Every structure is written in structure tokens, then in C-alpha cells.
Amino acid sequence: MIYRLTIATLAFLGSLYLPAHARTVYRCEQGGTVSLATAPEPGSRCTAREIADDAVALPNLWGELGIVNGVLYERMQDGATVYSTRKLPGSTKVLAFTVSTPAPKPAVPASVASDAGTRAQAAPRPEAPRLEAYGREFRSASRRTGVDEAWLRAIAHAESGFDRNAISPKGAMGVMQLMPATASELGVVNAFAPAESIQGAAVHLRQLMRLYRGNLELVAAAYNAGAGAVARHGGVPPFRETRHYVQRVLALHRVYRVALGLDAVQAVSVR
After folding, report:
1. Phi and psi dihedrals of 8, rounded to 5?
2. What global pTM score does this model have?
3. Active-site residue among 159, 185, 196, 241?
4. Are residues 83 and 150 in the same domain?
5. Which one of 8, 44, 172, 234 has the fewest CB atoms closer than 10 angstroms to its CB?
6. How many angstroms separate the CA atoms of 172 and 224, rounded?
7. For 139-198, how does the pLDDT look when each residue is reduced to its tens digit (9 = 90+)?
8. Number of folded domains in the chain?
9. pLDDT tens digits, residue range 25-35?
10. Residue numbers of the domain that contains 68
């Protein structure tokens, strides 16, 4: 059965193990994904929000994600029962849920921003590369598909932060955040196995690179929003999330090219 999950539901579950008037929900971010939990999640950046027992309007802690379908899990952490919408080791499924959040807002066209006198935001600081994660798997997938290892690492960094157990609110899984249908099409049996996830994503990325003739902006946009969205919009879709994702992946690609001792800029193979 699918339930309509509200913040109250999560807070109530947490209140079973918290003192009265101290019902706290944590919004946790990890690898570009968001989860809600009754305790800080290991490996995530979490922000606490207290929910008053008599609150009339409950806050939206998810953000602008549209319709979110997910699963609420239960696990033991530091000797206490914790509930979370992220599947972590030792988790047991409690219920599936659907929650409605505001739809992602389209990015403001540059011309509109200019006319309004809006200044461009300062470029974010480059993120540090993480070369220790799954080196053998990335090298193998790169050799077998011809996809630049730095590009594979950039996608993994943006998608999951190299978390093999990551599950997005939309159901994407594993290091490369493959959707179930995509994983099935690629022959990936276990999307949580790093080698399978990385190899499957490499094959998918090679297909996208052939489709878009090596245009990395379109490849990243299609990986994030789907090739259908790219086709409908005639390029990178005007979704703020997707545009931010494309910029981030391109920046990470440059970071990993340098970190791996490769040329800073090089077209990815589309063989």
C-alpha cells in the first residue's frame, strides 16, 4: 500500500522515541539526494527542524522536487530506533509513500535576468576530487566503453557522492543512480553493486555521447532529465535543477581530468 507521507508522519514515528515537544526531523543531503530522518544520517549533511505538536502548517523540507515517491525505512542507530527515507545498511522497509512538493522552477533565461538587472551569481568553488573510490571499476568501465574515466567519476560524484547504497527520492539507485527501468535495459542485475552500476552507466553514457555527437552539456542534461526532455526543449531543459547539474558535472569533469593527470579539456570518445 502507498501512503501519503507528511512531515507529521515522520515526526510522529520519531516521537515514539523522543520526549514530548522535542520532535525533530532532519533534512539530510548526500550526493545530490535528499532524505528526511529522525536522527542525523551517517555520511550526510543534515539540518535539524523541530516540528511543534500543535503546528497548523507543516514545513516542506524536501524542496522543489514535484511528486516524490519513496520508501520509509527503520533501522537501529546508536542503540535507538531511527526512521529515514534513505536506505542505509541494516534498514528495514516500513512503508512506501508519495508526497507532493512544489514543481522544480524553470531557470530564468539570461535575457530576462539581464533586463531585470540581476547579477550573475559568483561561480562556486571547485569541488575536491575523490580518487580513492572504486578506481579499478572506473578504469575497467572506461577501457571497455571508451568513455573518459574523468567523465564517469564526475557523474558519480554529482549523482551519489560515490555512495553505493544511495537511493534518490525518485528511486534512482547506487553509485551512478540508475533508475530501475534503465538498469534493466542495460542488463544491470544489482544496481547497488559498484562494478555493475559503473559499467552500466558507462554503456548508457556511450549511447548518449553517440546520440549527441560528444556534446557533454547535452549528455549530462539527458542523464539528469532524460533524452525525451532534451528533445522536447531542443537542448538543455530549462529546469533549474538540470541546469545546475550540467554546470556542476562539467566543472567536476575538469577537476578529475586534472587530478588524473590528463589534459584539462578533451572530447570524450564516442566510438
Report:
1. -60, -40
2. 0.56
3. 159
4. no
5. 234
6. 11
7. 999 999 999 999 999 999 999 999 999 998 888 999 999 999 999 999 999 999 999 999
8. 2
9. 888 887 667 88
10. 2-100
